[in-house]
Amino acid sequence: MRAYRLMILTASAVLLMSVSAFALPFPSTLDNFTSKDTSEYLSLNSIVPGTEGASPMNDVPGGLWDVSFAYEEAGHNNLWTAPTGEQLSNEGAWGATVSGVQLAGSSFYDVDDQELFSMADNNAVWIFTILNDFTVNGTTFLAGNLLIAFNDAWNGDSDYDDMILQASRAATPIPGAVWLLGTGLAGLIGLRRSRQ
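== VPLPA-CTERM sorting domain-containing protein ==
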């Protein structure tokens, strides 16, 4: 009986490993990634004609984000500008990061065509939620982060790979006032105990 159980357990493990081996690997490049089946890794958040169940790009979560330059495949020079004025360029260093900024109010600028695109421009910007971790060209995209894809010639190739950013939630620091309040309370407790 024990040997029978061990055999069933082994067969189940082999079956599970073979099923997971057929999982769709993320493409080795983000070039033209919107034309590939990446549904296991990315979920589109913006309204795109013909895409059901998508929410408007204006519904991008608020709060502060750390935004990093992650990928580009473009003939044009493109800039992403945060509401605070900080910028990332598709000709800059991969991994360059702007920390603690809001996504709403940021924009992309196609320097060559001198065109400005807001984050709410669904013809030029698509935003995805990353569902599973994946790595492309040494850049790791983490589940739960946002992948922000810009198409500088949106009326042309529609590949949304001309400048790709990754956004992760910014850590919220504890304000100094909280530490000061905690120290004051501890002092009052100590004073009260010393009087007793």
